[in-house]
Amino acid sequence: MTLLLLLPLAARSQDRLRSSAVFDGKIVPKDRMVETLVKGEYLRDYDLTLFRSVRMDVDDSDLESISALILNDASDAVSKETEVEHNRLKYALVALEPDKDSRCFLCFQSKPSADEGFTSVIVVYMEGDTTLTNLRKMFTTK
């Protein structure tokens, strides 16, 4: 129940993202996604205040749509790292323009799914006082 109450707050924070359509279930229906939303004290050790992720298996068309939205957000980024393999976005770590008093980050990763013909995708939106360097360390050591 608490997570349902927090969803509007997280959605409001992401209004400026072009890739918010991914989180809103406009590319892949919500019933085919696994969503995680964490806010508050649970994230203090990571210097974050909000963590929202969606994970899903997608076909080539959906992968292309999601990748285009991520790259579109990355085009306005303060800092970014991207990796493209065989003309497909494989990885992105993006520091967005700060929102009020908080830094905002967008992460993307894709890899072949266990289901043949599909790609497993995770998209993460985070807010907090951390840096890309700290996030890089967190994702490579956790």
SSE diagram, text form:
Elements: H1 2-13, H2 20-23, E1 33-39, E2 48-58, H3 60-75, E3 79-85, E4 88-99, E5 102-112, E6 119-128, H4 132-141
Antiparallel strand pairs: 1-2, 2-6, 3-4, 4-5, 5-6
Kindly name the structural category: alpha+beta
Give the SSE string: HHEEHEEEEH
Percentage of residues in strands: 35-45%
Question: In order across it, which strands form the biggest sheet?
Answer: 1-2-6-5-4-3
Number of strands: 6
The major beta sheet can be summarized as:
6 strands, antiparallel
Count of the domains? 1
Please give the radius of gyration in angstroms.
Answer: 14 Å
- Portion of residues within helices: 25-40%
Number of contiguous helices: 4
Shape: globular
Q: How would you state the average pLDDT, rounded?
A: 85
What's the N-to-C terminus distance?
A: 28 Å
Low-confidence stretches: 1-13
Verbal overview:
This protein has one domain. Helix content is 30%, strand content 41%. The protein contains four helices and six strands. The chain has a six-stranded antiparallel β-sheet with strand order 1-2-6-5-4-3, with helices on one face. The longest helix has 16 residues, at 60-75. It is globular, with a radius of gyration of 14 Å. The model is unreliable at 1-13 (pLDDT under 50).
